[in-house]
Amino acid sequence: MNSSGAANTPPKRGGGKKRRFLSAEKKFQVFLEAQHSTEPIGEILRREGLYSTDLARIRQQVKEGAMQRLGAKPGRKAEVVSADSYEELKRELQQKERALADLSVELAILRKKTNGGSWDR
Question: Considering the entire predicted model, what is its pTM?
Answer without folding.
Answer: 0.48
